[in-house]
Amino acid sequence: MKIAVVAANGKAGRLITDELIARGHDVTAVVRTENRSNAPHAILRDILDITAEDLAGFEAVVDAFGAFISEALHLHSASASHLADLVATTGARLCIVGGAGSLLVDEDGTRLLDTPGFPEEFRPLASAQADEVALLKTREDAAWTFVSPAAVFLADGERRGSYVLGDNRFTVGEDGTSALSYADYAIAIADLVEDGGHVREHLSVRWA
């Protein structure tokens, strides 16, 4: 497949890029500055400046963009909206790296980020990503998939080579925790891109 990875220079983006390359896909990094990933091709562009022409011919677009300072959190929704506009035109699949805070903890629709024990320092980011997925749910014209990792998301965690795929509900593994490594998240993203299903769904990924 011909796949574009937006924000391929980031920790998640690099591992996703490497996983896709290892599977034989033709991967292009879409990055603001110099391409520091292992992708053999690169498009240098700010995320809101990406055009439909840039993405022409790609079968899938993985959005690994992340903003963490308060002044930039609005870019989660802005970039998702922009990329949805583009793939609605080009026909590509859009797979977005999300966060755990938007997952539901009960049948009343309470989100994980709204629970008392949720860390205050992560609440603004989680709220921005929850707004992002809410916006995507209004987009019936684009083939998007929003993928929330586990609550404990380990940048340098082990690669087990396995994971549990769920819907938009927060669940825990056999040890009572919700955890996952970036490496196994990259495997899940690559599997979802190759599978081509779960269109317009909010999914979750964790270790068993």
Describe the structure.
- This protein is α/β, with parallel strands linked by helices.
- Helices cover 29% and strands 22% of the residues.
- It contains five helices and ten strands, in the order βαββαβαβαββββαβ.
- The strands form two sheets. An eight-stranded mixed β-sheet has the order 3-2-1-4-5-6-10-8, with helices on both faces. A two-stranded parallel ribbon has the order 7-9.
- The model has no long low-confidence stretch (mean pLDDT 98).
- InterPro entries: NAD(P)-bd_dom, NAD(P)-bd_dom_sf, Polyketide_Oxido-like.
- It comes from Schaalia hyovaginalis.
- GO terms for molecular function: oxidoreductase activity, acting on the CH-NH group of donors, NAD or NADP as acceptor.
Characteristic key phrases:
two-stranded parallel sheet, 208 residues, 5 helices, alpha/beta
Largest sheet: 8 strands, mixed
Which word captures the global form? globular
- β-strand amount: 15-25%
Assembly of the depicted chains? single chain
Strands ordered across the widest β-sheet:
3-2-1-4-5-6-10-8
Q: Structural class, please? A: alpha/beta
End-to-end gap: 29 Å
Entry summary:
The chain has 208 residues and is of the alpha/beta class.
Topology overview:
Blueprint: E1 2-6, H1 11-22, E2 26-31, E3 41-44, H2 52-55, E4 60-63, H3 75-90, E5 93-97, H4 123-136, E6 143-148, E7 152-154, E8 164-166, E9 179-181, H5 182-195, E10 201-206
Parallel strand pairs: 1-2, 1-4, 2-3, 4-5, 5-6, 6-10, 7-9
Antiparallel strand pairs: 8-10
Helix pairs in contact: 1-5, 3-4
